[in-house]
Amino acid sequence: MDKYHLSNWVARIGSLMERALLMKKNGILDQENFERSVLYAKSLLSTPAGRKSYEGLLQEGLFGPELREYMESFYAELDPLASQAAKRLDEEEAA
Questions:
Q1: pTM given for the model
Q2: Mean per-residue pLDDT for 65-90?
């Protein structure tokens, strides 16, 4: 039941983040206000449980390209070594 609630919470904050990204893209929200509006969401999504839930929802196709790109950058900043290792594995598989 806890996973269900976490998944719903992550879906909800992901939706709010997408809305904020689109508002920023359309010039309605400046960078400072955008960062303030997504601070809590980033805090939750940086936890192992939040990240796992986000990735599960992502696989279900829940989020659009704006949020996906933003979160890829966010996670790369959080864990650059893991990001580099994953990239190397992808390159090795492609070769």
A1: 0.74
A2: 77
